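Q: Could you fold this chain for me?
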Amino acid sequence: MGLFNNIKNLFKKENVDIDKKEEVKNEVRDVEKEKNIDIKEDREIKLYEKGLSKSRNNFVNKLINLNNKTKKITDEYFDSLEEILIEADIGVNTVLSFIERLKKRVKSENITDLNYLQEVIVDELFIIYVDNSILTNKINYNENGPTVMLFVGVNGVGKTTTIGKIASKLKREGKSVLMIAGDTFRAGAVEQLVEWGNRVECQVVVGRENSDPSSVIYDGLVKAKNDNIDVVLVDTAGRLQNKVNLMKELEKMNKVIGNIIEGAPEETLLVIDATTGQNGISQAKNFMSITNITGIVLTKLDGTAKGGIVLAIKEELDIPVKYIGLGEGINDLETFDIEKYIYGLFKDMM
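A: Sure. Below is the predicted structure, expressed as structure tokens.
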């Protein structure tokens, strides 16, 4: 309050010059901006805390209990730790290399204090995601026209809901958004996207039932260019008759998109349901073999007690997680932040 009172007093002076007034106005704007950033940051941290509570209560409590009942750091300790990490869906290969790295660090630093070892464990898990990495959660925007984001993933992972939530998020950021109902095969898919369009007040381009998805995408992109839309979100079929058909369909879509907007799609985001665990990793590998995946959207992270899948995705796929779902609400889909994720998962150990 002191700063604002000072500002009021400054404006009460009769001889305050114009430059001084502008300087003070800028100061007010800066304070308000910082205040809004702090509020947003606090809301996001709380969302991570709440969204990761199941994983934290399961995974972290096991780590704390292990340390509480352990008197010395032994091979048995590492065996138990290995079990806990694998159960957290971090992935067997990732866990094995992690345990080896942890053993070396314990030996080289002569670590005997279990409380300090807890900090080392968190530190090393953080390193899994960021070490020697150029992964970024930033969306690649097209500065010369509509940015096209293509969404892929098997049926049931929350793909259409994710598109609706991202549309809402982008609109809150001041961007104009158009959605294209490219999943013309699944019963109800088009209607579901239209419903989301009504909910977030966003246009949806649809075609006839069982029409060629690429023709719907063509019409949508032409409209997006004509209407100077900022971002186009494209839904796609989660399953065709076989992998070859799906690959051909995605190839066709990419060709149509690239012909209308050079360099597009800027993003091909794979939607994975976090509750499916390692099965989600297998889905990712299948999609990576048929199209270029630029990022992961991890849904339903709040619904699993195995939050370690984020680390498995990094280690096994080396693809950035760009968005995570931390609740069922329209505003509960967040841009992924590794520091907030680590804090939300391990806050009880910090």
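A (continued): The chain has 13 helices and eight strands.
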